[in-house]
Amino acid sequence: MTLSIMEKFDRTRFDLRICVLQVKQGNPIADELKRIGIPVDLILIPNLRHPKNLPRLLKYIKEFNPHIIHTQLEFANILGNVASAILGIPSVSTLHTLGAPQKGGDYWHSQVEWASLRFFCTRVISVSESTRQHHIKYGNISSSKINTIYNGIHLSVFEEGAKNNSENRLASFNIPNGAIVIITVAVLREPKGIQYMIEAMPLILKAAPDVYYLIVGDGDYSTKLKELSRILNLERHIIFTGQRTDIADMLFVGDIFVLPTLIDALPTVLIEAMAAGKALIASNVGGVPEIIEDGKNGILVEPAKPQQLAESCLKLIKHKHEREAMSKAGLQIAHEKFDITKQVETISNLYDELVKNGR
Predict the structure, then answer these.
(1) What is the pTM assigned to this prediction?
(2) Cα-flanking dihedrals φ and ψ of residue 268, to 5°?
(3) What is the DSSP string of 167-218?
(4) Are 24 and 89 in the same domain?
(5) pLDDT tens, residue by residue, 189-203
(6) Structural domain that includes position 236
(7) Is 259 helix (H, G, I), strand (E, B) or coil?
(8) Which is deepest, 185, 256, 302, 340, by most CB within 10 Å?
(9) Which sign does the torsion angle of CA 25, 29, 31, 34 carry?
(10) 19 lies in the same domain as 144
(11) Residue percentage of the chain with pLDDT more than 90
């Protein structure tokens, strides 16, 4: 989202710079940011406990003396806000995920992050209202400090994608013309719930044998998903495409978009699928109901329920007019609610307010 947002900022008003605290998969987005003229620096922080973390970050911030510090994700939300408070610089933190309220692997990390947001952060952005309420309840963040600003997308990308030839892409995956294609785009992790959609496929194929399931993405759970597909003898009807960079084009291949996620603050991919004119089926969790109005632009199902997934898919497969009505409604919602230009305008106004009023 950082790249998408920064591409839209008015560069005559804002001088932007990125500081990266970790390296993940080579940080490929850094090259894209540099391509549009935004400097990217690396202050490597492999863990939170090292005593030199904060002094190194303070030295870096003093060098550039920014008017605003905007942090994203756990390490930055913790260290960046402490540093901003020490230096008297207004700070903004965006919460993209739900913290862990129960004791477990991430519990103490969440507690430290919430404490940093409560005591040191000037303003907090939540990507959905359900996420906002979660952090107010479990993180004890003041409701006056945290606002909801929905993620937006570049709608024009999907308007251009409509012009591309989907039939050629279908042929490249050995999917016959006229077949119904269900598609999921996700990082292949267990909490995305794709295993339940795979379990739903035998029920779908029993009633509609000319259906294919396209799984776009990669991740540490891909081996188990492929093994499940093999065990259920679904290899002919389930296609794993691996990681793709042409997501907009891939979305146009599908007839129905499914996201069987078990937890999600606000899955941007659902917004992208709406912009591509897809009817949606997704789990009724997190911020998903803030994207999908059940029965209008998609269908909400309970998480981890293959039977419900199968029934919902078959409903849309058998009723093309309903699919098309949901597609039309989704396009309208995407334009009204999730245009990235509106998101950038709101954040820009917030920056102006903080520069004027300070911490």
Answers:
(1) 0.89
(2) -60, -30
(3) HHHHHHTTPPTT-EEEEEE----GGG-HHHHHHHHHHHHHH-SSEEEEEEB-
(4) yes
(5) 999 999 999 999 999
(6) 155-337
(7) strand
(8) 256
(9) negative
(10) yes
(11) 86
